[in-house]
Design a protein that fits this description.
The structure holds two protein chains of two kinds.
Chain A: H1 8-17, H2 19-43, H3 46-62, H4 64-77, E1 81-85, H5 88-101, E2 106-109, H6 113-118, H7 120-126, E3 130-133, H8 136-144, H9 160-170, H10 181-198, E4 201-204, E5 208-210, E6 215-220, H11 224-230, E7 234-240, E8 244-245, H12 248-262, E9 270-274, E10 288-294, H13 298-301, H14 317-321, H15 325-328, H16 339-349, H17 352-355, H18 357-360, H19 367-371, H20 378-391, H21 397-410, H22 413-430, E11 436-437, H23 444-449, E12 452-453, H24 460-472
Parallel strand pairs in A: 1-10, 2-3, 2-4, 4-7, 5-8, 7-10
Antiparallel strand pairs in A: 5-6, 6-9, 11-12
Helix pairs in contact in A: 3-12, 9-10, 16-20
Chain B: H1 9-21, H2 31-35, H3 48-58, E1 62-66, H4 72-81, E2 88-91, H5 95-100, E3 110-113, E4 122-126, E5 129-131, E6 136-140, E7 155-161, E8 165-166, H6 172-178, E9 186-190, E10 195-196, E11 204-205, E12 212-218
Parallel strand pairs in B: 1-12, 2-3, 4-7, 5-8, 7-12
Antiparallel strand pairs in B: 5-6, 6-9, 10-11
The chains are: A alpha/beta, B alpha/beta.
Chain lengths: 474, 223
C-alpha cells in the first residue's frame, strides 16, 4: 500500500474539522481507556504479567532465525506448507498463486494488517478474485472503499448513521429498519454468512506463530477468523516473521497482556490454534494449510537501533492513549499503522523521507510508553527518528535555522546569558505589568488560544550571579 | 514429500542470513534470565470451580451444573425450552455425547450426527477441558466435535465434565503434549458467545458465531 504520510499536516487539519470523526473518536477514547484501566485493576498483578510477556517476546526475537526454522519444520510435519516472502509484492504473488492453483474464485479474509501492508486485496481482485473482508469493522470500510483507521477497531471512525447508509446502498434488501446497532449487526451476520459458505480460500493473519507446535494463533471476538479458516478448502495464514514465539507457554504469557491492553478483556471470545490441514477422520476443515512469512524490512530492523519496536504485539493501547491519535484519527497518518507505534514503524517499513512528519506529530508526553505491555520506549524511538531526519535535512528550513541559532548561542555562555536576560526584560516590558502576554509574534497560533506567562524582568541566572556577588562581598 | 512443502528458497535464505548476520539487539536483559523459560502465573487462590463458573458467566455464557450424566439431557431440554426450543441438536461422533444421549426421553430433542445445515439452530459439542483462569472451554477439532459446530449455530451447547476444569492456561499445554506429537488441526478456546463492538464501540452479541453459549457441567465417577 502506497504511503501518504507526507500529507499528515493537511489530513490532520481536515480531521480536526470533521465533526462525525470527532464524535466517533471521543466515544472511542473513553471506551478503550476505561476498559483497559478496569482490566488492569481487576487483574491485580498486571506488572508481573507484563514482565513475563516481555521475556517471552525477547526469547523469540533473540533466536528468531532458529524459531522460524523450527516453526517451518513443524508446519510441514503437520502436513502444511510454508512460503517466505521478502517483500509485500512477493507475498501477493505467492497468495495469488496458491489461489490460482486451487482454482479459487472467492476469498474470505480475517483481519490482518499484513494484508494492508502488501495491498493484498487489490492484488487478488486484479487477479479476478472476489474478496470479502469478514471482520465487521473491515467489512464496513471495504464497503466504504477506505483503509482501516485503527489496528484493533478498523471502523472506529465511522458513526452508526454512516454504517447504516453503507448497508442501505450496498445490500439489496429493500426497505427494512437499519437504525439500531442490533439491526446492522444482524444484517451483516446474514450477508457475511453467505460469503463464508461460498469461499474457496480463507486468508487469516496470525497474532502469534508458535514454533514448538507449528501453530498459528488467531484471536477474535466475532468468530470470523474461525469461519474463514475452517470452512473453505484452502486456509492461508499471512504473518510477519516477528510474530514467532518459541513455546505454548510463551504464547500464553503474551495472550494474557494482549486482550487486556487492547479491549480490556482477560480473554477474547475465540482464541484458536491452527496447526495444519484437516486430518484423517476430520469431517470439516481445509484440505490445504499454507503459512506465508513476510519480512518486508523486519530482518533489518532487528539489528538496528530501532530493534525494540519488534516487540510490538499490535494491541493498540498506545493509539488509544495518544492525545494526537485521538485528535486526528488513523487516516491522518497516511499508511497502515497509526499512532505512536505507527510513527515509529512506518519510517522503517517505508522510508524516513516519506514519513518524517509522523515522528514529529508527538508531544513526547510518554503515555504510550506507560501503557505499552511490551515496555517499548516509544518516545525514545520517536526522538531517534527526529535526530535521523535532522541529519538527513528532512526537517523544515525554519526549524533548522532555529536549532542552528540556538546551538550557536548555547556555545557562547556569556552571550547566551546576556541575550536571555535582555529577552526577559523586553518581555516583562511588553507584558506591561499584567504578568502575561496575549500575543507573541513567533507563535501566533499558540497564543491565539492561550496566554503566555511573562518573565518578571530578571532571570534566574542573572539573579543568581547578582546574589553570588553580594554574598562574596564584591 | 516434506521437502516439497517448503517454498521460497532464495527469500528464505536471504531472510535467515540477515537475521543471523545482524541479530536482534535485545533490551539488555541478562541472556540467561531470558532463556531460562516462561514464568507461569500462579492460579488464583479461590476455589477453582467457583472461579471457573464466575468467569464463564462474566463472559456472557450461561452455565448449569448437574450431578450426573443421566441428568444432562433433561437439563439441556429444559434450558432449550426457554430459548426457542429445538427438535434436533447437530453434533459429531463424540462418544460421551452419544452415551449421554441414551438418557433421551420421548419428546426431547434428537441428536443429529451430520454437517450443519442452513435451517439448523442448535449444536451440541463436548469440551475436552476448561480453564478456570479465563472461563474458557477447550475444544479439539475432529470427527467427534467438528470445529465448525462451534461457530455456525445460533445456540451452541457445550458439555463438560467437572473433573476436566483446569486452573490456568499453562495447565492445558502439558495435557496436549501428552497426547503425542502433533496437535489436532484446530484447538478452540471458547470464552462466551460471539460479539463485536465495531459499530460505535457498542457490544453486540452474535456477530458471526453463536448468540448463546450454554455450558452444562456434569460429574462422573472418574476423578
Amino acid at each position: 500500500m502506497k504511503s501518504r504520510a507526507t500529507e499528515f499536516d493537511a489530513r490532520a487539519r481536515r480531521a480536526l474539522d470533521d465533526q462525525a470523526l470527532q464524535a466517533a473518536l471521543s466515544r472511542a477514547r473513553s471506551g478503550f481507556v476505561d476498559k483497559r484501566r478496569n482490566a488492569v485493576a481487576e487483574c491485580g498483578n498486571f506488572d508481573d504479567l507484563r514482565g513475563a510477556a516481555i521475556l517471552a517476546r525477547e526469547r523469540a526475537l533473540l533466536d528468531m532465525a532458529a524459531c522460524l526454522e523450527r516453526f517451518e519444520a513443524r508446519v510441514v510435519a503437520n502436513g502444511g506448507e510454508v512460503h517466505w516472502a521478502e517483500t509485500g509484492a512477493e507475498l501477493n504473488t505467492i497468495v495469488s498463486g496458491i489461489c490460482a492453483a486451487a482454482g479459487a474464485r472467492r476469498v474470505t479474509r480475517g483481519k490482518s494488517m499484513i494484508g494492508e501492508e502488501t495491498g493484498l486485496n487489490q492484488a487478488l481482485e486484479d487477479a479476478g478474485l472476489e474478496v470479502t473482508e469478514t471482520d465487521l469493522g473491515e467489512y464496513i470500510i471495504q464497503l466504504a472503499g477506505e483503509r482501516p483507521s485503527h489496528i484493533i477497531a478498523p471502523a472506529v471512525h465511522k458513526t452508526r448513521a454512516q454504517v447504516s447508509e453503507l448497508f442501505a446502498s450496498h445490500h439489496e434488501r429493500g426497505e427494512r429498519p437499519l437504525e439500531e446497532i442490533r439491526d446492522l449487526v444482524d444484517e451483516a451476520r446474514e450477508v457475511l454468512r453467505a460469503r463464508f459458505l461460498a469461499a474457496d480460500v480463507g486468508i487469516t493473519g496470525a497474532n502469534f506463530l508458535v514454533a514448538e507446535t507449528g501453530s498459528a494463533i488467531v484471536v477474535t471476538n466475532e468468530g470470523n477468523g474461525d469461519l474463514t479458516a475452517s470452512l473453505p478448502r484452502v486456509h492461508i495464514v499471512i504473518a510477519s516473521i516477528d510474530k514467532v514465539v518459541a513455546t505454548l507457554e510463551d504464547a500464553t504469557a503474551l495472550l494474557r497482556v494482549l486482550g487486556r491492553s487492547a479491549t480490556g478483556q482477560a480473554m477474547t471470545a475465540y482464541t484458536s490454534l491452527f496447526s495444519g490441514p484437516r486430518q484423517a477422520g476430520d469431517k470439516d476443515g481445509p484440505e490445504q494449510f499454507h503459512v506465508v512469512l513476510l519480512d518486508n524490512g523486519r530482518s533489518s530492523i532487528a539489528g538496528s537501533e530501532f530493534a525494540e519496536i519488534l516487540r510490538c504485539i499490535r494491541c493498540g493501547a498506545c493509539l488509544n492513549h495518544c492525545p494526537v491519535y485521538m485528535s486526528v484519527g488513523g487516516h491522518a497518518y497516511g499508511w497502515v499503522y497509526p499512532g505512536p507505534m505507527g510513527a515509529v514503524l512506518t519510517p522503517l517499513l517505508t522510508s524516513l523521507p516519506e514519513s518524517s512528519r509522523l515522528p514529529d506529530a508527538s508531544t513526547l508526553c510518554g503515555r504510550c510508553e506507560e501503557v505499552c505491555p511490551m515496555d517499548i520506549p516509544l518516545p525514545d524511538l520517536l526522538r531517534r527518528h527526529r535526530a535521523s531526519a535532522h541529519r538527513q535535512r528532512l526537517d523544515p528550513k525554519r526549524w533548522r535555522f532555529g536549532i542552528a541559532l540556538h546551538a550557536w548561542l548555547a556555545r557562547r555562555p556569556r552571550l547566551y546569558q546576556w541575550a536571555s536576560a535582555a529577552a526577559a526584560r523586553l518581555l516583562a516590558m511588553a507584558a506591561r505589568g499584567r504578568g502575561y502576554l496575549s500575543r507573541f509574534p513567533i507563535a501566533p497560533g499558540w497564543t491565539a488560544v492561550r496566554e503566555l506567562p511573562s518573565p518578571q524582568g530578571t532571570n534566574f541566572l542573572s539573579a543568581r550571579i547578582k546574589r553570588g556577588r553580594k554574598d562574596d562581598g564584591r | 514429500m516434506a521437502a516439497d512443502r517448503r517454498h521460497g528458497g532464495t527469500a528464505r535464505k536471504a531472510i535467515l542470513e540477515r537475521l543471523r548476520g545482524a541479530p536482534y539487539r535485545g533490551s539488555g536483559f541478562d541472556r540467561d534470565t531470558v532463556m531460562a523459560g516462561a514464568t507461569p502465573v500462579p492460579a488464583s487462590g479461590s476455589n477453582r470451580f467457583d472461579h471457573f463458573v464466575a468467569r464463564v458467566r462474566a463472559s456472557g455464557a450461561s452455565l448449569a451444573e448437574v450431578d450426573s450424566g443421566a441428568e444432562v439431557y433433561s437439563a439441556m431440554t429444559h434450558w432449550l425450552a426457554d430459548h426457542g426450543g429445538a427438535t434436533e441438536l447437530v453434533t459429531g461422533t463424540d462418544a460421551a455425547i452419544h452415551e449421554l444421549g441414551q438418557h433421551r426421553r420421548d419428546g426431547q430433542p434428537e441428536l443429529a450426527t451430520r454437517p450443519f445445515g442452513e435451517h439448523d439452530r442448535v449444536t451440541l459439542t463436548h469440551a475436552c477441558a476448561a480453564i478456570a483462569e479465563t472461563g474458557s472451554l477447550v475444544l479439539e477439532s475432529g470427527a467427534d466435535n467438528p470445529a465448525t459446530l462451534s461457530f455456525l449455530p445460533e445456540i451452541n451447547i457445550i458439555l463438560l465434565r467437572r473433573g476436566d476444569v483446569l486452573g490456568t492456561l499453562d495447565d492445558l499445554w502439558p495435557r496436549l503434549r501428552a497426547r503425542g506429537p502433533g496437535l489436532p488441526r484446530c484447538i478452540n478456546l471458547v470464552t462466551g458467545p460471539s460479539r463485536t463492538a465495531d459499530i460505535e464501540q457498542t457490544i453486540q452479541l452474535g456477530a458471526h458465531g453463536p448468540r448463546h453459549v450454554h455450558v452444562i457441567v456434569y460429574r462422573t465417577s472418574e476423578p
